[in-house]
Amino acid sequence: MTQVISATAQFRGSRAAVGAFKRDRFMEQASDLLAQARAMAAAGRWDQALEFAYQAGLRTAGARIADSAVAKRRRLPSSAWAQLALVGGEEKEWAERFGAYSRLRSRVASGLEDAPSDEVVLEVMALAAEFLSYVEEEMSFGSLAA
């Protein structure tokens, strides 16, 4: 008797491999978004720079979550920052720091507020860059420890 194998079966891997793929994809996207934020800031488009920097933070959070036991949980909060806080440790602090900009980002994106000051946007960009570096270091350390 012949066996039918799904066309997508060959692409299914272990949960760890899928998590690593997601993590790497998120990290690459975060880096690209941070570069776009810098370009928008250089052009004086502070609203767009804020959006790209915040999105870079979200992608970095996604990478950290994908690389943790939290990714395996069934019921997760819908907020990326709430999920990041579940990872524990310093991640909870990162979630709180980024969460403080959530409302501002939402109001600027929806047009309820004008573009924030360049100081605020530069703070978010620096925060996103620092978070990206932190997660890269954590991932490198984790791969050495494993």
Q: What is the gyration radius calculated from CA atoms?
A: 18 Å
Mean pLDDT: 85
Query: What is the total tally of β strands?
Result: 0
Could you spell the SSE succession in H and E letters? HHHHHH
**Strand-residue fraction?**
under 5%
How many helices?
6
Fraction of residues in helix = over 70%
Which structural category fits the helices and strands?
mainly alpha
Q: Any idea what the shape is?
A: globular
CATH superfamily: Nucleotidyltransferases  domain 2
First-to-last CA distance? 42 Å
pLDDT < 50 runs, ≥5 residues:
none
Number of domains: 1
> Strand count, sense and closure of the main sheet?
none
CATH class category label: Mainly Alpha
CATH topology: Four Helix Bundle (Hemerythrin (Met), subunit A)
CATH 2nd-level architecture: Up-down Bundle
In short:
It comes from Corynebacterium striatum. By secondary structure, this protein is mostly helical. It has a single domain (13-145), classed as Four Helix Bundle (Hemerythrin (Met), subunit A), CATH 1.20.120.330.
Give your account of this protein's structure.
Helices cover 71% and strands 0% of the residues. With 146 residues, it is an all-alpha fold. The model has no long low-confidence stretch (mean pLDDT 85). It has helices at 15-42, 46-66, 80-87, 90-99, 102-109, 118-145. Helix 1 (15-42) packs antiparallel against helix 2 and helix 2 packs parallel to helix 6 (118-145). The radius of gyration is 18 Å and the shape is globular. The protein contains 6 helices and no strands. The termini are far apart. It has one domain: Four Helix Bundle (Hemerythrin (Met), subunit A), CATH 1.20.120. InterPro entries: HEPN_SAV_6107. Pfam families: HEPN_SAV_6107. This is SAV-6107-like HEPN domain-containing protein. Residues 51-136 form the SAV-6107-like HEPN domain.
